[in-house]
Design goal:
This protein is mainly beta and 224 residues long. The chain has 3 helices and 12 strands.
Length: 224
């Protein structure tokens, strides 16, 4: 079966590095889901105001599966292997992903849904949208021995070299930057305290490094 996108997402993540590994880990992350022709009509969205959350069925369009049956999950430190179908790895046989996100607003005239708490890179193709229905989608007795709790958040400090640029940002951008870095975007095997990393968030390039308490933001520049 061949499937085509019905929408494209545009938000605060211009590149893959730094994106939360699951939806709703960074609740301040917003994006617009824009329906594309021939689906760019308010008729497709009629009734969506009855729900607070939706499921996004999307494609990992920047990844290519190499045929591996096992992958190295970050939750296992990147050193142990597990069957790909027992993980949320973005490298999958059919390259499909599933995320539940909050509806922030709906623009029916332009066929755009603004969502919060997403975990998708800009340009991700959306293949389907379904309403989240609590009585059936929330399973109270569900268990997961592998990843039973959300990962902890790290302390994020602003170095004096970045303080002026940080102060000029609005509160939403400040929260987004700190939340993205607090959930530790680094591969588990990266433990270098001298290495400086850069992450693209919104139209900003944020440079940071690890310290013994968490992370420290060193520079914030706008991408022009």
């Amino acid at each position: 079966m061949n499937i085509e996108p019905i929408a494209i997402i545009e938000g605060c993540y211009p590149e893959k590095f730094g994106i939360p590994r699951q939806a709703r880990l960074v609740t301040s992350a917003e994006a617009e889901i824009r329906l594309i022709p021939p689906y760019q009509s308010k008729d497709f969205l009629d009734g969506l105001e009855n729900y607070s959350h939706i499921w996004l069925i999307f494609g990992f369009h920047q990844n290519e599966w190499q045929g591996d049956a096992k992958v190295r999950p970050q939750r296992l430190g990147g050193n142990q292997k597990m069957g790909v179908l027992a993980t949320r790895s973005p490298y999958r046989p059919n390259g499909l992903g599933l995320s539940a996100v909050k509806i922030a607003s709906i623009d029916y005239e332009n066929a755009v849904i603004t969502v919060a708490g997403h975990d998708l890179v800009n340009g991700t193709p959306i293949y389907d949208i379904k309403p989240y229905i609590p009585f059936t989608d929330s399973i109270e007795d569900a268990k997961s021995l592998f990843a039973n709790e959300a990962p902890g958040k790290y302390e994020v400090n602003i170095h004096a070299s970045a303080q002026m640029a940080f102060n000029l940002l609005d509160e939403k951008a400040k929260d987004l930057i700190q939340s993205v870095i607090a959930q530790n975007p680094l591969p588990s095997y990266h433990q270098d305290y001298d290495r400086i990393y850069g992450v693209a968030i919104l139209d900003l390039n944020v440079r940071f490094k690890r310290n013994h308490n968490g992370f420290e933001i060193l520079e914030i520049h706008r991408n022009f």
